[in-house]
Amino acid sequence: xxxxxxxxxxxxxxxxxxxxxxxxxxxxxxxxxxxxxxxxxxxxxxxxxxxxxxxxxxxxxxxxxxxxxxxxxxxxxxxxxxxxxxxxxxxxxxxxxxxxxxxxxxxxxxxxxxxxxxxxxxxxxxxxxxxxxxxxxxxxxxxxxxxxxxxxxxxxxxxxxxxxxxxxxxxxxxxxxxxxxxxxxxxxxxxxxxxxxxxxxxxxxxxxxxxxxxxxxxxxxxxxxxxxxxxxxxxxxxxxxxxxxxxxxxxxxxxxxxxxxxxxxxxxxxxxxxxxxxxxxxxxxxxxxxxxxxxxxxxxxxxxxxxxxxxxxxxxxxxxxxxxxxxxxxxxxxxxxxxxxxxxxxxxxxxxxxxxxxxxxxxxxxxxxxxxxxxxxxxxxxxxxxxxxxxxxxxxxxxxxxxxxxxxxxxxxxxxxxxxxxxxxxxxxxxxxxxxxxxxxxxxxxxxxxxxxxxxxxxxxxxxxxxxxxxxxxxxxxxxxxxxxxxxxxxxxxxxxxxxxxxxxxxxxxxxxxxxxxxxxxxxxxxxxxxxxxxxxxxxxxxxxxxxxxxxxxxxxxxxxxxxxxxxxxxxxxxxxxxxxxxxxxxxxxxxxxxxxxxxxxxxxxxxxxxxxxxxxxxxxxxxxxxxxxxxxxxxxxxxxx
Length: 642
Hints:
Blueprint: E1 3-12, E2 15-25, E3 30-34, H1 41-49, E4 56-61, E5 64-65, E6 76-79, H2 91-101, H3 106-119, H4 135-147, E7 153-157, H5 165-182, E8 185-190, H6 193-199, E9 202-207, E10 210-215, H7 217-222, H8 227-232, E11 237-244, E12 247-250, E13 253-255, E14 268-274, E15 279-282, E16 292-295, E17 297-304, E18 307-315, E19 321-324, E20 333-341, H9 342-347, E21 357-360, E22 364-367, E23 372-377, H10 381-397, E24 400-405, H11 410-424, E25 431-435, H12 440-450, E26 455-459, H13 465-474, E27 479-483, E28 492-496, H14 501-517, E29 520-527, H15 533-553, E30 558-564, H16 567-576, E31 582-586, H17 599-607, E32 613-616, H18 626-631, H19 634-641
Parallel strand pairs: 3-8, 3-9, 6-7, 7-8, 23-24, 23-26, 24-25, 26-27, 28-29, 28-31, 29-30, 31-32
Antiparallel strand pairs: 1-2, 1-4, 4-5, 9-10, 11-12, 11-14, 11-19, 12-13, 14-22, 15-21, 16-21, 17-18, 18-20, 27-32
Helix pairs in contact: 2-3, 2-4, 3-4
């Protein structure tokens, strides 16, 4: 192998931006590393080149371990997005630079320069200065300069990102021709899917520091194995259905499966993927040659050159959850993306408001990831309560589960974990035990680095409860369920929200949990606006009704409450009524990942002794307490802020 990466990890301020990335790239391969901004792909490239330090793992280039070597010792060529040409040097001198510092002869430098300028389409322009060239020509010079000393590996970090579309297409073709001719192992980093598909022999998709999938472009596009890859690589329709030996069921509808259903095992929840080009449209169900999905309304049509794109609104299918396209908060229908040729569009023209029938050519099923739980357990009463409630939730949700034992040592800890595993029982897709041989916060952080976690479940003793909550929340991006004492399985959930994006996340995640629990939900907002109480109430009612519709798509029964008064007292009184057995609050987050439980949330967490509290994190939270009012979580903190 030309390039081997072993468990590469890089942390900034204690948080991994590259998380245990392992990869092998063959000699002469053009490998594309694809992912959204901030996914860690450029950091991986810089770690290979030696421009960024490595906290853990190894880099091997053509069998040499270069992990501790300086950049100039690694024999790599690097092309940056911003060209990084020497402005005071001519084009020819730029190309010759790497050979000059290696003390190559003048004849060798000239021959190599002329060969490379011809190869990249700049023959005869060696005497020009960089400012006399276009952006695309400057990037060709940067490519020629990177190749001048015949490096073992070529690394390109979004080299065409600053160029217009036409020039990018030309340079992609040039790069592929050059790479094929010289046969150099190349890693190309980009966030552009079209660029990746055109260039890659193989590609890898990264997100949040992890390398999720690796394979040929057509394989990852047609048969992805993860939800992120399915939705990131082009447009996707992704629904949750049931897979059986004879195909896929979406509610009452049955479809044959393009993949091997036998690999899915017995009937189980799966994510059902079909691309826009796999959607057929016809005036009537009888005109379809494919299994019908239903009759939809055209919401949008878009002319995109050789194809037409359509977005269609389909009535909700009983028991079917839509993942992509994302269903707007409060919608009671499913969105479907379709694509067809202009010839098809001319033969069956459609406008907004028309109601064609939809069929599906082919489906691909992905194993549904389900929930992943991390249960914190020790031999205290609250630790045992967390294990009991977490185990019940794990069984109901069929969740992948890890028990993290802490506060004990040696044989006592081993016996505790063994008993915990026996208590939860068999039948889960994954049930692991883990001993915390370090401070709890660090143990949680290491576990969620190893495998992303949706929900941490922790016993919540009165003493140190807020501090424990902060430890748990600071360790990752998961939600937190605090269990103060032995609890029955929750069946009546109170979600305290106000209008805004963070509140939508509270509703969506709690709905996912409530569906598994078979629980009813009450959505409550507390009005504290004494200046415009009627307007505030109307806004809250609209938001809560949208939340009811969103929960309805998940099969969760819900109703609403609007109250006025002091937030903490109102919530406390509502929970004391005995109508609810689980309280849901939004987590107040401060700058970065330094989570502090403050304000009304702190008061409720500190004072609660009888019922569990679910704290839901928001990706919209930014900077301390003031963000709460700005983003709509007034019901949890306005009293304190004012």
